[in-house]
Specification:
The structure is a single chain. By secondary structure, the chain is mostly helical. Among the domains are: about 45 residues, Arc Repressor Mutant, subunit A; about 140 residues, no CATH class. The chain is about 60% helix and about 0% strand. Helix 9 packs antiparallel against helix 13 and helix 11 crosses helix 12. The N terminus is likely disordered. Its main location: mitochondrion. Belongs to the COQ9 family. Keywords: Lipid-binding, Mitochondrion, Transit peptide, Ubiquinone, Ubiquinone biosynthesis.
Length: about 325
């Protein structure tokens, strides 16, 4: 029977201390067989126990190597909705200070290293402090996108729908507005936030189109579309949850590109473009719903006809 590791060590220590003479005598005897290469710390254990012991030590070493705090293992190879992973573009206080100050220089210098350097100087940091941002100019783009989403949520809390003049119904309250109308208001309000940096936005689009930056760019676009639909009061729980966010993402991304070339007063051309795209998406959605209803009716008819003929369905 294999003994626990701590009992075996205690027994060995007691034997060595009480029978020191016998141990010295035995150590002078040359063994006739070849000795194993097992480490002395667990040579007395059975082969199966030694294997488990090695595996536990290896797991502990991996924990210490990959964890921020050695006493806690941060390795988690499963998904948990109770512990979602942190965003890849979450910033420290120093990074947030530099990026916030750099946004003031974007209208003039664009999303460039020069804007980051000026932002670091305004915040009291050295020029070399821009090295705190591992993605450089792309971090400035991500910070702009995330901060505008926060401003959009704040405008809704301040009564964007009740005070907006975008609705065709003058006396309609925020609760009476349909979801599509709220989506249009939110998209246009988010586009207005790009008014000061319109001439610099093509450079930001170029940064976002770099292959290594595409995943985070799409993640931000999905976050924006999800925020827009949530703020508009959409409560979809079926497959349309995905299709609506995909449609809003397509409308906003295309409108953003159109806005960079829009020279009309108050961006009326961009507004008309958004209205047309929303109407098209709504028409496509109605047609898809009609096809679903038709297929459902045909399926029910076939099942009923088969059962009337005695088929077990």
């Amino acid at each position: 029977m294999v003994q626990p590791l701590f009992l075996s060590r205690c027994r060995i220590a007691a034997t060595r201390s009480s029978n020191k003479t016998i141990v010295n005598t035995l150590s002078s005897i040359k063994p006739t067989t070849t000795t194993t290469t097992t480490p002395p710390s667990y040579r007395h254990l059975a082969p199966q126990t030694r294997s488990l012991h090695r595996q536990s030590l290896h797991s502990r070493d991996l924990c210490i190597k990959h964890s921020t705090y050695p006493q806690q293992c941060s390795l988690r190879q499963y998904h948990s909705r109770y512990h979602p992973p942190l965003p890849l573009h979450e910033y420290t206080n120093s990074q947030t200070t530099i990026l916030s100050a750099a946004l003031e220089h974007v209208p003039e210098h664009g999303f460039t290293l020069q804007a980051l350097t000026l932002g670091a100087r305004d915040s009291g940091f050295l020029d070399v402090s821009v090295q705190l941002l591992p993605r450089g100019e792309f971090d400035l783009v991500l910070f702009w996108l995330a901060s505008r989403r926060g401003l959009l949520r704040g405008k809704v809390e301040d009564g964007l729908f009740s005070s907006s003049s975008e609705t065709d119904t003058k006396n309609a309250t925020a609760a009476e507005l349909p979801v599509d109308e709220k989506v249009k208001i939110l998209i246009l309000e988010r586009l207005r936030m790009n008014e000061k940096i319109k001439d610099q936005w093509q450079g930001a689009l170029a940064l976002m189109s770099i292959p290594s930056n595409i995943p985070l760019s799409l993640s931000e676009l999905h976050a924006l579309s999800s925020d827009i639909l949530t703020l508009a009061g959409d409560n979809s729980v079926d497959a349309s949850w995905y299709t609506k966010r995909l449609a809003v993402s397509a409308v906003y991304a295309s409108a953003e590109t159109v806005m960079t070339q829009d020279s009309s007063p108050d961006f009326s051309a961009t507004r008309a473009f958004v209205e047309r795209r929303i109407e098209d998406s709504k028409a496509i959605g109605d047609k898809v719903d009609g096809v679903k209803q038709c297929l459902g009716f045909l399926g029910t008819t076939v099942v009923g006809l088969g059962r009337s003929w005695g088929v077990k369905i």
